[in-house]
TrEMBL record:
Organism (species): Zwartia hollandica
Protein name as it appears in the record: Class I SAM-dependent methyltransferase
GO biological process: methylation
InterPro entries: Methyltransf_11, SAM-dependent_MTases_sf
SUPFAM superfamilies: S-adenosyl-L-methionine-dependent methyltransferases (SSF53335)
Length: 244
């Protein structure tokens, strides 16, 4: 009985570990919530491209303002998305304070101590101009908390303009607009990316395909991350920058 119980516990632990490996939302949530809870009370924060305002509940100690253009409803192009949210469901926004383009926000210079922007830049036609706008809106020594994919599949079409941004893009563009990078952390690696796409294929194809691909999925899902595998390809970056 004890051996059986131990096996059950191990299997649950393995399942949770595999969930985190296949869905970088877990790691992103950990990163964002840790950053938000450390912010000084009454800091003025702009949730730029806020969408459904996933992280608003962690901002009760802050002066929270939201921004979005608020026009996305459902994906116009059908995509393979079995591992993600249902792209056919109508998107739900939270209450928005600033409605309009993220690269042209109607707020005064240095209005905010913090800008939060998560998984938005791939949906912006003018990302460089958006960084410039963030720099304008941040007070001196203000903080930018930014996450975006480095590669991704089409989603939220027709507002899908880039598959991702490399660490070199952040290093060049943020510094050009008066922002100092405090940290830039890669999420995932080449092995986990292959594991995710194999899992997607396993969930959408026939039993015969599952038999053929399962060994490859197990191989890549259990390989350890290395510097080379991260440099080759990762799923995204978590960036902290400050206004100089």
């Amino acid at each position: 009985m004890l051996k059986l119980l131990a096996n059950v516990v191990k299997s649950r632990s393995f399942y949770k570990k595999m969930q985190r490996r296949l869905n970088n939302q877990f790691e992103r949530d950990d990163f964002i919530t840790a950053q938000l809870t450390q912010l000084p009370e009454k800091s003025k924060i702009l949730d730029a491209g806020c969408g459904s305002q996933r992280y608003r509940k962690y901002c009760d100690h802050l002066i929270y303002k939201s921004q979005d253009f608020g026009q996305y409803t459902t994906d116009e192009k059908q995509v393979i998305s079995n591992l993600g949210p249902d792209s056919r469901a109508e998107y739900q926004y939270g209450q928005i304070d600033y409605v309009g383009d993220i690269w042209n926000i109607e707020a005064a210079d240095q209005s905010f101590d913090v800008i939060l922007c998560t998984e938005v830049f791939e949906h912006i036609p003018y990302p460089n101009e958006t960084v410039k706008e963030f720099s304008r809106l941040l007070s001196k020594n203000g903080k930018l908390i930014l996450t975006a994919p480095s590669n991704c599949l089409r989603h939220m079409d027709p507002y899908f303009f880039y598959t991702g941004f490399s660490d070199r893009w952040y290093e060049k563009v943020l510094t050009e607009h008066g922002l100092k990078i405090e940290s830039i952390s890669p999420v995932g690696d080449y092995n986990s990316w292959l594991a995710v796409e194999l899992a997607r294929t396993l969930s959408t194809h026939s039993f015969f395909a599952k038999i053929l691909l399962l060994p490859a999925f197990l191989f890549y899902s259990t390989r350890k991350k290395s510097t080379v595998s991260v440099n080759t390809l990762c799923m995204g970056y978590h960036v902290i920058a400050s206004k100089i």
